[in-house]
Here is the input.
Amino acid sequence: MGLRIDSPYHHCQGSWYRGNLHTHTTESDGDFSPREVIQKYSDQGYNWLCLTDHDKITPPPSPLPNGILVFSGNEITNRGPHILHIGASELIEPKADRKLVLEDIHKKQGFCILNHPNWEKTFSHWPQDTIESLPKTFQGLEIFNGVVQRQEGNPQATDRWDMLLSKGYRVWGYANDDFHGIEDMTRGWNMVCAKDCTIDEIIGGLREGRFYCSTGVSLSTLEVNEHTIRIIATNGSLCVASGDWGIELGRFAGRAWELDIAELAQDRRPGYIRFEILGDMGMKAWTQPLFLRWD
Ligand SMILES: [Zn+2]
Ligand SMILES: [Zn+2]
Here is the structure.
């Protein structure tokens, strides 16, 4: 039985850079000016930040404080469920038919993710059938959104992620503050593995899955070699592996793990495996999925 693992971490070289992809300023409905927001994230030790006002591109002010990398995005908001357009240089018209919006982004070589799928009293800002009717050109979805922690719905959306992954979608999970005010800050972030903290490296890593998400658990090692994954957490205490349709494949106490992927898969032959590392106070880290092919 041959197993081939397609892992975004195979090409992981360099350092881990922390950032938030979803940030509002006074240019839309945020409490702070772009300069103030950037300073706040810089003070927290963030390496990069994406400004994403509602249906508006907010250019980074210059000069930037303390060398933090800042780039522009746009939260496509009006007339439908929200889409984060990353690295936006041109505004995309918020057409009610989100299929057309995704086509427009794709034509402009942009990359986008679907925001807070389980927001609102319906727990379904993005109904699953709407997601599955879209062209498969989105890069992923927010599996954690900080604002939904204080609003209706579920801030996590790993249920939607598992449904898509189980149907063969290759989509990444992202964790974002959705910063509007100070209470949203440092709730969820992305750690990108990159050679250096430049726009190409950070956006490339976010696009290709060379990152993990966190609400407080940090990983000092995340490596996939041949048929094993090595994870060392600085502050986690439980690693949970799951596969197709959310089926749990194993849970392992401790702080450092070297797990054999074929052993975890056993005879289930899942199409993907992903890992969650749990820590104190409900804090988590989520790896991206490893895609498995069985010959
Ligand atoms: Zn939104
Ligand atoms: Zn937002």
Notes: The two ends are 6 Å apart (CA to CA). The helical segments are 34-43, 98-107, 128-132, 158-166, 199-208, 261-265. The first strand starts at residue 3 and ends at 6.
